[in-house]
Amino acid sequence: MNVVLVDGGGSNIGSVRYALQRLGVEAELTGDAEKIRGADRVILPGVGAAAEGMRKLREHGIVELMRTLDKPLLGVCVGMQLLFEHSQEEDVDCLGLLPGQVTKLPAGEGVRIPHMGWNTLQKHGESSLLDGIDEGAYAYFVHSYAAPDCEFGLASCDYGRRFSAVVQRGRVAGAQFHPERSSTVGARLLKNFIEYGLQ
């Protein structure tokens, strides 16, 4: 299985790589179009800002490739946010693979931004991506922006408002939480993606 991590400049790339190694998968970090095009599975990780992620993809000259890729694609954290049309963070146009806009989570009483820590997943849809992950399972989040709960959401989370925690439309999927820091839940999601693709 040829798995690549797209170099979007995220600071969590090393930990995602290590999580894949624990599953027996050696994933190459690359911004090379041919290597991405030739992969069986493509993961777009990201920590930081959407604008920086898009800048890095443009720098590699792979924005159009990511938009037309015909392989299973999993965005993680900011990588998931880049799958949408637009991010309110620095008012940046993203890849547009999923409809909708990423917006800032609202702060409030008892709701600190960024959302940082463990929270429960509410499942809405069936997919091989969530095989073996139970309703109410805990995942680890670190983010200030999020996509709205939407029709292609597989799982959501509540923090200030309800937002999409896992999405999938066809060959494109995303996880707002950090699978590499989410213990057995995160390992299972990555394993499902590697083994099944997106079914």
Question: Could you walk me through the main structural features you see in this protein, from its secondary elements to its overall organization?
Answer:
The chain is α/β, with parallel strands linked by helices. The protein has a single domain, classed as Rossmann fold (3-Layer(aba) Sandwich), CATH 3.40.50. The protein has helices spanning 13-22, 33-37, 50-60, 63-68, 78-81, 183-196; strands spanning 3-6, 28-30, 41-44, 73-76, 84-87, 92-93, 98-104, 115-120, 122-123, 138-143, 145-146, 153-159, 161-169, 172-175. An eight-stranded mixed sheet has the order 2-1-3-4-14-13-12-9. Strand 5 (84-87) and strand 6 form a beta hairpin. It is globular and about 50 Å long. The model has no long low-confidence stretch (mean pLDDT 93).
The CATH superfamily is identified as Class I glutamine amidotransferase (GATase) domain
Distance between the termini: 17 Å
- CATH fold label: Rossmann fold
Tally of separate domains:
1
The proportion of strand residues reads: 25-35%
Q: Uncertain runs with pLDDT below 50, 5 residues or more?
A: none
Residue share in helix: 25-40%
Radius of gyration: 15 Å
* Overall mean pLDDT: 93
Order of helices and strands: EHEHEHHEHEEEEEEEEEEH
Find the count of extended strands (DSSP E, 2+ residues). Answer: 14
- Biggest sheet features: 8 strands, mixed
Query: Any idea of the CATH class?
Result: Alpha Beta
Q: Helix count, per DSSP?
A: 6
Instruction: Find the structural class using helix and strand composition.
Output: alpha/beta
Named at the architecture level, the CATH assignment is: 3-Layer(aba) Sandwich
